[in-house]
Design a protein that fits this description.
With 789 residues, this protein is an alpha+beta fold. The strands form six sheets. Strands 13-12-11-16-15-14 form a six-stranded antiparallel beta sheet, sandwiched between helices. Strands 18, 19, 20, 21, 24 and 25 form a six-stranded mixed beta sheet that branches. Helix 7 packs antiparallel against helix 8, helix 8 runs antiparallel to helix 12 and helix 16 runs antiparallel to helix 17.
Length: 789
């Protein structure tokens, strides 16, 4: 009966990494059930100690159906470059039943016959490194008859090349002769016959005479090329994990694939992507006919990559019969070799199209074309060519090429998705940020917004300038926690909420309180969202050009800086409240009077905070930059960013500069009004005289009606003290204040009603009107447009 032999590969950790068909037949275990498991799991009992030390013996395994199987095994160590065992190749035969006693062949003739016919290359040298004996396998390997070598010095003649492999062999041969200590090592190099790289595991041991003196050296050489190539492929894959995808840039990722495989795996590589991959669009349906590809990277062993037909950045159209289109259509690697019709046609077409590079393509003999696929989507194709390297691509190489390309494809897709999300977030953020700041006279403003380029994505920084009643203006900056589209969307909601609350004319501390409640409600609406995920910081300030007072409040935001005319920059001491979304804690307002021409700087934390920078030093740099003279506010903005920001900011940066103006007494008129209807006419007349002094007689008719209505309402429905104020700004503003906190509202008057039409008339005659609460009551205001000067 024919015996079944088995082969098993076990790594240095004792894990099964290879399982032959013979092993399956002997044990019943299929390869997929064994590979990756500890070899000890297959044992029915512990092997004898002699088997472990001698790497040979009888071991008992457990068959898949449960019965015991005894096998005669022998193991051969696979060594690494440092001489250490990296694993073992184990061969096994069933333990034979006790045979009938047979005559045993004895004597040196039997031993000589066994060694001479061994499949392992074996030879012997004397102490002067001359051949004394070779077996048949060694002669076949050398390509020389035994008699032609006997007595020759190893390095004599043209039998072995004069290279580092021969030098290493001779060095170890002498070392064993000198020390009498066995040597085990691995060497590799190109085979003289086919030019392919081979690896050999070498065993050298001393042969002693009866007195123990070394008289010769025995040598056994095992061809470990397959194991060597497997290690090289594994090392390349391990390196790919770290070398490919170091940036979220599509083109750079393709370049990293090229740099990794040339020249270790290919003599020429090209990476072509579909057009939509380089944009922010969604994947387009695959075309059944010609495919347009965009060359993003290529490289070769020859400087300048003269083999390339397509220039970097150029597009090319590929017919259906070409390897790239076949690979994309079939969704798998396509292997091509010289002599195959499709391969030869491809090379001929390349040569005809770009004859200048034809000499560099001479000798091309093997190609692997692999589609770049990630998450079920085809992104492009990579082409690997071997030209000067003699060994053609094998099926194992195809698997390696697919694995390398797969890793690169995932990184390309990650970069594409990041670019798409970044583009979307930028577009969303730019649509939400103010494009042109509204016209107002209270401050002159300039701003900068710089999105960060980090992998975290676009943040949620924002700024705003909001005109308020009475020529006042609100300045706001904020920063939403996190990055990406979610942060940009949250930023848009908060900015809209700030504008809505500012329109109600809430004081800064009250506005932040309402905004804090909004963030808490938003977190409650999001399923499973934490308040911290939707949190934000915000600084809200209101400047009044009439009183020159600045009122501001902070929700966990960095304090602004102020530079008075002729003075030096310093941070405003603001009571920093909690970030928005914490809830339950108050916000406090800070008020100060500013000289006309003061410079305010509001900013987000990305300007001064970074894990590699000291915040106090960055703040000092900010103040120092604000002290420098600038031709304009825009120039000051640029100077601040240049002085404070690092080369690659890790967060978004928003900077808002405002230079304050003041409305002097010549543009503001105020009257105290007694709470008596008889004084309405006197007040109206005083207002008309003021308009005449300002040269606004044409606006007098509307203003007279507005003053009459608002003063009358204040006397009739309000409480003292009552005050009328006219402000001449870009618009003519009428303000009537009283001590009542009840706000007026429009109502529909019936046909026979004697009143109820006053506010409706004011709304119809003026550009806009409204009311705001004050510390002593309320103020009703209305604005009339003035002709441009």
């Amino acid at each position: 009966m024919k015996q079944v032999a088995a082969a098993v590969i076990i790594d240095a950790r004792g894990m099964v990494t290879g399982w032959s068909e013979g092993a399956r037949r002997l044990t019943g275990h299929a390869a997929e059930a064994v590979v990756g498991r500890p070899a000890a799991d297959l044992l029915a009992e512990d092997p004898p100690p002699t088997a472990m030390t001698e790497l040979a013996g009888v071991v008992a395994l457990r068959h898949r159906d449960g019965h015991r199987v005894e096998l005669t095994v022998s193991a051969c160590a696979v060594l690494g470059g440092d001489g250490e065992a990296r694993g073992f190749v184990v061969t096994a035969l069933p333990e034979p039943a006790a045979p009938e006693p047979q005559p045993v062949a004895q004597g040196p003739a039997s031993l000589e016959r066994a060694i001479r016919q061994a499949s392992v290359s074996m030879s012997a040298f004397d102490t002067n490194q001359r051949y004394t004996w070779l077996n048949d396998a060694a002669c076949d390997l050398m390509g020389v008859e035994e008699q032609a070598l006997i007595g020759q010095f190893y390095a004599d003649g043209n039998i072995v090349p004069d290279d580092r492999i021969s030098e290493g062999f001779l060095l170890n041969l002498r070392e064993v002769t000198r020390t009498g200590v066995p040597v085990r090592y691995e060497t590799f190099g190109k085979n003289a016959d086919d030019g392919r790289e081979h690896a050999w595991s070498m065993e050298m041991w001393p042969v002693r005479d009866d007195l123990g003196a070394v008289v010769s050296v025995g040598i056994a050489a095992f061809d470990s090329s397959e194991q060597h190539w497997s290690r090289r492929r594994l090392a390349l894959l391990n390196e790919a994990a770290a070398a490919i995808g170091t940036t979220l840039d599509v083109v750079r990722t393709a370049e990293e694939l090229v740099e990794l495989v040339v020249p270790r795996f290919a003599d020429f590589v090209s990476v072509d992507l579909l057009d939509w991959v380089l944009g922010a669009e969604e994947p387009t349906p695959a075309q059944a006919d010609e495919v347009v590809l965009h060359r993003v990277a290529h490289g070769s062993v020859t400087e300048g990559t003269p083999e390339a037909v397509i220039a970097l950045g150029a597009k090319d159209t590929y017919p259906p019969s070409t390897p790239p289109v076949r690979a994309i259509a079939e969704g798998r690697a396509v292997l091509g070799r010289v002599g195959e019709r499709a391969f030869d046609e491809w090379v001929a077409e390349r040569n005809a199209r770009e004859p200048v590079g034809r000499p560099y393509r001479k000798g091309v003999h093997s190609m692997v074309t692999v589609p770049l696929r990630a998450r079920g989507t085809t992104l492009g194709v990579a082409v690997f060519l071997r030209i000067g390297r003699p060994d053609p691509y094998t099926e194992d190489d195809v698997v390696l090429a697919e694995e390398l390309t797969s890793r690169a494809a995932v990184c390309v897709d990650n970069a594409r998705r990041f670019a798409r999300e970044r583009t979307t977030a930028l577009a969303l953020q730019h649509s939400l940020l103010p494009r042109g700041l509204p016209g107002q006279a209270a401050v002159e403003v300039a701003h900068r917004y710089l999105p960060c380029g980090s992998v975290a994505g676009i943040g949620g920084d924002w700024f705003d300038v909001i005109p308020l009643s009475g020529s006042r203006v609100a300045l706001c900056v904020g920063d939403v926690v996190g990055h990406g589209i979610q942060s940009s969307a949250t930023m848009g909601r908060l900015r809209t909420a700030v504008r809505t609350l500012a329109d109600v004319d809430l004081p800064p501390d009250e506005l932040l309180t309402h905004l804090d409640d909004l963030v808490t409600h938003l977190a409650d609406e999001e399923d499973g969202a934490d308040v911290a995920e939707l949190g934000a910081t915000c600084l809200y300030a209101v400047y009044d050009p009439v009183s020159r007072r600045l009122t501001l409040a902070s929700a966990g935001h960095p304090p602004p800086a102020v530079v008075p005319p002729g003075g030096v920059a310093e941070l405003i001491e603001v009571t920093a409240g909690p970030p928005l979304g914490v809830g339950g804690l108050p916000f406090e307002a800070t008020e100060l009077k500013l000289p006309e021409g003061s410079l305010l700087a509001l900013y987000t934390d990305g300007l001064i905070e970074d894990r590699d920078r000291d915040i106090d030093h960055a703040t000092a740099e900010l103040c120092r930059a604000l002290n420098l003279p600038g031709a304009s506010l825009d120039a000051v903005c640029d100077a601040v960013l240049k002085a404070v920001l690092p080369e690659q900011p890790g967060d978004d940066v928003a900077l808002l500069l405002a230079r304050t103006h003041a409305l002097g007494a010549g543009r503001v008129a105020t009257w105290d009004v007694p709470p008596d209807p008889a004084h309405v006419a006197v007040t109206r007349q005083a207002a008309m005289e003021q308009l005449a002094d300002w040269g606004l007689e044409e606006e007098a008719f509307v203003t007279e009606l507005v003053v009459s209505e608002l003063v009358t309402n204040a006397i009739r429905y309000g409480e003292p003290p009552i005050q009328l104020r006219l402000i001449r700004d870009r618009a003519l503003i009428v303000e009537v204040s009283d001590g009542s906190s009840t706000s007026p509202h429009l109502r529909r008057a019936h046909v026979y009603d004697e009143g109820g039409r006053g506010l409706l008339l004011v709304a119809q005659l003026t550009q806009r009107w409204g009311s705001r609460q004050t510390g002593t009551g309320k103020t009703i205001w209305a604005e009339q447009p003035l002709p441009t000067e």
